Amino acid sequence: MTIILKIGGSVLTDKNKVSAAKPEAIARVAREVSEALSPRLVLVHGAGSFGHHQAKEYRLKDGLNDWSIKGILPTHNAVKSLNAMVVDALQMSGVDALPVHPLSNCILNNGRIEHMCMEAITRMLRAEIVPVLHGDVVMDTAKGVGILSGDQLVAYLARALKADRVGIGTNVDGVLRNGSVIRELKPANIREVESILSGSVGVDVTGGMYGKIAELMALAGEGIPSVVFNAEKPGNIVKFLRDDLAEGTLISGD
Amino acid sequence: MTIILKIGGSVLTDKNKVSAAKPEAIARVAREVSEALSPRLVLVHGAGSFGHHQAKEYRLKDGLNDWSIKGILPTHNAVKSLNAMVVDALQMSGVDALPVHPLSNCILNNGRIEHMCMEAITRMLRAEIVPVLHGDVVMDTAKGVGILSGDQLVAYLARALKADRVGIGTNVDGVLRNGSVIRELKPANIREVESILSGSVGVDVTGGMYGKIAELMALAGEGIPSVVFNAEKPGNIVKFLRDDLAEGTLISGD
């Protein structure tokens, strides 16, 4: 049983400030992962306020130029510092977690993953170590440099590792329509989703809820189901890991 | 012209203490790199006192077990913090440098590199960015976990990138015989080297001078020359990068 769990940057950080972590939320997430740990778990987290502002300031989405090149390191360092907090919190909760940084092992082609080195991740999973990856600034074969969102990363890892289940822990109760949670979505609903979703609050250079759902819809079409749920609600991560979550939006192909 | 330059941990840190950097030495090394920067340069640094002590305490060389698993993160974090100092110093000297962490992109097989993901490094070089790698703790397909020395990394990168020249900046004047520098070594001299070299001072789990020379001898046999030189002597890094270094030990195949 291979599980990919993403915890959104909005859960771990205050997206409206620059590099502002929520240490209590990070510690709680780590405790929940520890409580319901399964042997083949990959954790991915968004950058939240660590990285998005830097990426925007240096216009990393424009590709490589004399200005953006100066923004790669500060953007990478910002999200790496959030990653270190997450990994440390997991270790303090007794989880053998290790950081894996996309800038080191991944390249994009025009914003989409062209290659990601899976060997270290696979080896960690065999040793029952939880690899902890994150949205990052990454070299791009077409544009020089680009942004890899945690959501694209989740979809890539789910395919590469033939995951059984994907969980997307956000700060809302699921995919919403007029304030109510859509209980189930199928790839056929993509047009509907396009029309109902508006952008998230705060700065997010990677596309907010729509980008997230588009990645998951494609995944569902390939037989990998996912659940978008509220990870700010204590207990939900434990329930998701135990396959016992009765809320959120299920995105599946059947 | 592709150049691999390794700066030994002994140049950047005090190997007899735990996690003690030499900030002035790091800044000077960065200035020298900046002064003689060539477009395709890869920098590798040793762990020095960042990582060796942790690796020894947790017996990472024994492979993965209940004790060593707790040492992976502290060892990786220690050398990563040295790496951050080196990258920051380079950036402050105007060099577009980025970190690349072997734990993320490399696996060993019984202590030897089985696979290293070169894509990100290659892309950085094309963008005239200097990738900065380091000795690290790395997953191992045979032993679970192992230590990747900066020296093995240098040899691997030199082959993978078909490097033209390799520089090994240490805290001595070259390979020494009775206190005098051996000016030239060829692969045929390997037995002689075995007999004259004794271990370096301080703790070094990766083999000291002998391991270094064995890697370089093999490389020389494949047509990639290297120079072991004193990187504590101001100006030597500039001279090496400009191919104008008249001292040290040249290890070449012809």
Automatic annotation (TrEMBL), chains A, B:
One of its GO terms (biological process) is terpenoid biosynthetic process. It comes from the Archaea. Coiled coil: none annotated. One of its GO terms (cellular component) is cytosol. The keyword Magnesium does not apply. Its EC number is 2.7.4.26. Keywords: ATP-binding, Isoprene biosynthesis, Kinase, Nucleotide-binding, Transferase. GO terms for molecular function: ATP binding; isopentenyl phosphate kinase activity; kinase activity. InterPro entries: AceGlu_kinase-like_sf (IPR036393), Asp/Glu/Uridylate_kinase (IPR001048), Fosfomycin_R_FomA-type (IPR024192), Glu/AcGlu_kinase (IPR001057). Residues 1-230 form the Aspartate/glutamate/uridylate kinase domain. It is an enzyme of class 2 (transferase). Gene3D superfamilies: Acetylglutamate kinase-like (3.40.1160.10). The record marks 15 as: Transition state stabilizer. ATP binds at residues 6-10, 48, 208, 212. It catalyses: isopentenyl phosphate + ATP = isopentenyl diphosphate + ADP. Substrate binds at residues 47, 52, 150. Belongs to the isopentenyl phosphate kinase family. Catalyzes the formation of isopentenyl diphosphate (IPP), the building block of all isoprenoids. Homodimer. This is Isopentenyl phosphate kinase. It comes from Methanocella conradii (strain DSM 24694 / JCM 17849 / CGMCC 1.5162 / HZ254).
